[in-house]
Design brief:
- The complex is a heterodimer of chains A (about 210) and B (about 80).
- With about 210 residues, chain A is mainly α.
- Chain A is built from 9 helices and no strands.
- Chain A folds into 2 domains: about 1-95, Rna Polymerase Sigma Factor, Chain: A; about 110-205, no CATH class.
- Helices cover about 65% and strands about 0% of the residues of chain A.
- In chain A, helix 7 (about 140-155) packs across helix 8.
- Chain A is elongated.
- The N and C termini of chain A lie far apart (about 60 Å).
- Chain B has one domain (about 25-85).
- Chain B is built from 5 helices and no strands.
- Chain B starts with a helix and ends in a 7-residue tail after the last helix.
- Classes of the chains: A mainly alpha (about 210), B mainly alpha (about 80).
- Chains A and B meet through helix 2, helix 3 and helix 4 of A and helix 1, helix 2 and helix 3 of B.
């Protein structure tokens, strides 16, 4: 612990070999909090490695003589890692996402939240993983986001989802509808012609 | 559940149940070597060997250097970096 508290890299081995299982359990708990309950073992192992190194990075901020308690700083680091793991899809789909919300769009569902929820579900649902992959293959990140935003608005009861999303993206509603149709058709086409994407056929989200 | 409760629970679980999980030390060594290389270490594999030996001995650099008959600076250089930060 003395080596670790000084940020000495040599402590990494002890930390990993002796506390790796505990770190892994805590990570699994954070992932479960994010509804990611089916994380592949290999990914969890990788996260445990990353977490060990991240904890070592943070170790100098832990002081037994009155600094943050180990579980306090470790908790934050590990929760952040779990969130990053679950949210990686969000970043990939949202790189050019403009999240400014115009005045008068108070009913709009926040796009970031839409994508975060989708990413959370994606970690547990293979169909959603497939959908995200299809969107990445056939649509730009912006088009994918617009499609998902419109669908999220519609699901939230917005009677004019295209209008709401158009206001968010400084677009005309007709242009938003075109993007939705184009993206939807592209993914449906993939589902029709590529056997791997067959599970997407008949998905309500892709219905006209 | 607070962070403290979560950690205490995980530690107690670990202590009371045989764990099926075993550390993948080779993978960890590769990850650490990669990280050291990213920080400019020219001999990351050797550095990992030395760090591993010292880590398992649980001694600080000065004492380990003395055991090896090296200067602190020489051992620091052998380990590739003063720390992995």
């Amino acid at each position: 612990m003395t080596l670790m508290a000084s940020g000495d890299a040599a402590a990494a081995f002890t930390l990993y070999e002796e506390f790796g299982a505990v770190i892994r359990r805590v990570l699994r708990g954070h992932l479960a909090d994010l509804h990611a309950t089916r994380v592949p073992d290999d990914d969890l192992d990788g996260l445990t490695l990353d977490a060990t190194l991240a904890l070592l990075d943070a170790a100098p901020s832990w002081r037994a003589d009155g600094g943050a308690m180990p579980w306090t700083w470790a908790e934050k680091r590990l929760r952040s890692l779990a969130s990053s793991y679950v949210g990686q899809w969000t970043q990939e789909l949202g790189d050019d996402h403009d999240d400014t919300t115009p005045e008068g769009a108070a009913v709009a569902v926040e796009s970031g939240d839409d994508m975060h929820s989708l990413a959370t579900v994606a970690a547990t649902d293979p169909t959603v993983q497939l959908l995200i992959e299809a969107l990445r293959l056939r649509c730009s990140a912006r088009d994918a986001e617009i499609l998902m935003s419109v669908k999220a608005q519609a699901a939230a009861g917005d009677p004019s989802p295209a209008n709401t999303v158009a206001a968010q993206h400084a677009m005309l509603p007709a242009a938003v509808r075109q993007v939705v149709k184009r993206s939807r058709d592209a993914v449906r086409g993939l589902a029709e012609h590529d056997e791997r994407f067959t599970p997407l056929r008949g998905l309500a989200l892709l219905a006209p | 559940m607070t962070g403290e409760e979560r950690w205490r629970g995980a530690i107690e679980d670990e202590a009371s149940a045989p764990s099926a999980w075993q550390p993948d030390v080779e993978r960890f060594r590769r990850a650490l070597a990669q990280r050291l290389a990213g920080h400019g270490c020219a001999w990351p594999d050797i550095a990992v060997d030395v760090l591993s030996a010292r880590g398992h001995s649980a001694v600080d650099r000065a004492e380990f250097a003395e055991r090896l008959g090296l200067t602190d600076d020489a051992l620091r250089a052998l380990e590739g970096a003063p720390s992995i930060h």
